[in-house]
């Protein structure tokens, strides 16, 4: 486990080297990330519905893995997705297809007017919208979903990075997800130490994705 901060680019390099040079399949890294995050979420989320917001990248892919593991832990889950499963690719698509076959409720949102209604029943909202591939400011449905989530009187948990934040600097242009907890993968991101970030990250938990210590030592 790494507690030294890394930039988004460094963490993305860790993922890539783990896949290309160590031969760990990306889907194994995603399973480790999602399973570890689900266990943390189960430990902090109050009783009641957990609504997982899934974007179209691998941050959303983590969300589909988490849904499967939280269901196994006895939690009620719904997934709210920004796109159809057919618009996903790679490991995110594989995990979304598994969730769909498992009858985990998934609804795609395309109308901003219905967001508040969809999010209302949630006791906890998990933000799997965007991770290290995000380029703020947020566009379209991502901005509307983050605004609607921030208005809900519930617990909010961010996966890897609160969506909307520049995790290298901590800059949080409005709207940026306001998390009570941030479950971040591999290492805290450099921007989390910035005073700008403190309102948005809440308590930070670092989850290992199973890359070897040797690789972590070689980065940064
Ligand atoms: N193998 C891996 O690389 C792993 C990745 N993991 C997860 O994957 C994440 C990174 O995944 P991705 O590289 O797919 O990136 P993201 O999941 O951050 O998504 C990138 C997508 O979002 C869109 N986007 C970027 N900025 C936007 C904006 N401002 N408004 C609207 N859309 C925007 C881009 O067009 C792109 O399609 C990590 O943060 C982590 O959660 C983990 O599953 C561990 C393993
Ligand atoms: K996120």
UniProtKB/TrEMBL annotation:
HAMAP family: NADHX_epimerase. Residues 11-217 form the YjeF N-terminal domain. The lineage of its organism: Bacteria, Pseudomonadati, Planctomycetota, Planctomycetia, Pirellulales. Its cofactor is K(+). It comes from Rubripirellula obstinata. Signal peptide: none annotated. Its EC number is 5.1.99.6. It holds the Pfam family YjeF_N. Keywords: Isomerase, Metal-binding, NAD, NADP, Nucleotide-binding, Potassium. K(+) binds at residues 59, 127, 163. The keyword Endoplasmic reticulum does not apply. (6S)-NADPHX binds at residues 58-62, 131-137, 142, 160. SUPFAM superfamilies: YjeF N-terminal domain-like (SSF64153). Belongs to the NnrE/AIBP family. Binds 1 potassium ion per subunit. GO terms for molecular function: metal ion binding; NAD(P)HX epimerase activity; nucleotide binding. Catalyzes the epimerization of the S- and R-forms of NAD(P)HX, a damaged form of NAD(P)H that is a result of enzymatic or heat-dependent hydration. This is a prerequisite for the S-specific NAD(P)H-hydrate dehydratase to allow the repair of both epimers of NAD(P)HX. It is an enzyme of class 5 (isomerase). It catalyses: (6R)-NADPHX = (6S)-NADPHX; (6R)-NADHX = (6S)-NADHX. This is NAD(P)H-hydrate epimerase.
